Amino acid sequence: MNQEFLYIILIIGLGYLLKRFNILQEKDGEVISKIIFKITLPALVVVTFHSVDIDTTLIFLPFIVFIFGLITVFLGLLVFKNEERELKGSFLMLSGFNVGLFAFPLVYAMWGMEGLTYFSMFDVGTSFIVFGLAYIFGSYFSKEGLRLKPLDIFKKLGKSIPLMTYIIASALNFSNVQLPDTLIHVASTISAANIPLSLLLLGLYLNFKVEKQFIKPILNYLTFRYSLGLIVGVALYFILPYDQMFRYTIMIGLLLPVAASALVFAVEFKYSTTRLVATISNITIVISIVILYVFANFII
Fold first, then answer.
1. Which of 95, 87, 165 minimizes the C-alpha distance to 128?
2. Measuring CA to CA, which residue among 3, 17, 8 is closest to residue 104?
3. Which helix (H) or strand (E) is 52 found in, with range?
4. Distance in angstroms (rounded) separating the CA atoms of residues 215 and 247
5. Rounded mean pLDDT of 190-196?
6. Measured between alpha carbons, how far is 144 from 188 in angstroms, rounded to an integer?
7. Distance between CA atoms of residues 86 and 98, nearest Å
8. What are the CA-CA distances from residue 79 to residues 71, 83, 91, 258, 266 (Å)?
9. Which of 57, 194, 213, 236 pairs as cysteine with 40 (C-beta 3.0–4.6 A)?
10. Looking at residue 54, what is its pLDDT?
11. Cα(193)–Cα(185) distance, rounded to whole angstroms?
12. Are 118 and 61 in contact (CB under 8 A)?
């Protein structure tokens, strides 16, 4: 397990060094992220859902995650009620979790395909938080105010290739529909690139510069996010009547980094706090790596 974590850290570090030596630039990450989200991640989902039997209890995972998102937004409105409008919107846009890019490589190292199945269902709930709640509040607290229609949200959800793949692949699994072996073989070959590309992308986007005026808001947000995730995650671990992997997924999932899409939304809604969003995203990646390492070595 420690060896796998070492490989993961080395690949992330390689991505960071490639940026530092100008071999790759952050703008190159846009192309890599499109390849991941539109090709390698969907391929990995297809292979994962094809190779395992999904327990019907997993259907509850997305609902639990979405309810947690609602609680986060509600409490966030109370905790950050005195913050400036765009700062408040930035924090609410950061409500989701980075599952596909961050969690999958680490989860695969810890639990293999079984772990990916559970976290894939977790990511379904995350998608509704990111493209639903986070997107709505990001627009509402922007300078132009809420200008979304319900159709806009459904279009966002419908254009999410990973989400659509999750839904279709899980439906096929529950229906016991088997995809052709040739398709699975091709998808398996493509999916092999998902983990190294995801880790390189994380390294490419790492940035350790923190502007002074952002230090206090960042500390406030991190305290709120990780305290809430830890309290709810541990409570659900002991309360939920499901298997241990289900409960591990909830406990770990609620401590994952913020969703990478928050930065995209900040740019789309022309937030002046875009750099703050990027900084928080980087810090949560580092914190969550430490959390997962401790979890892998001292808990499971």
1. 95
2. 8
3. none
4. 33
5. 90
6. 44
7. 22
8. 12, 9, 10, 18, 21
9. 194
10. 76
11. 14
12. yes
Specify whether the CB–CB gap between 194 and 104 falls below 8 A.
yes
CA angle 165, 105, 17 (to 5 degrees): 120
- Residue from 259, 83, 73 nearest 162 by CA: 259
The CA distance from 56 to 171, in Å, is 11
- Calpha distance 11→198 (Å, rounded): 9
pLDDT beyond 70 at 1: no
What distance in Å separates the CA atoms of residue 186 and residue 47, rounded to the nearest whole number? 10
Q: What is the pLDDT of residues 25-49, one digit of tens each?
A: 878 888 888 898 889 989 998 998 8
How much is the pLDDT for 109?
81
pLDDT in tens, 157-187: 788 888 889 889 888 888 888 889 999 999 9
Q: Is 79 exposed, middle or buried (0-12, 13-18, 19+ CB in 10 A)?
A: middle
164 by Cβ neighbours in 10 Å (0-12 / 13-18 / 19+) ranks as middle
Contact 56, 172 (CB under 8 A): no
The residue among 55, 16, 17 whose CA lies nearest residue 245 is: 55
Are the beta carbons of 162 and 123 closer than 8 angstroms? yes
Q: Please give the average per-residue pLDDT across 239-249, as a whole number.
A: 93
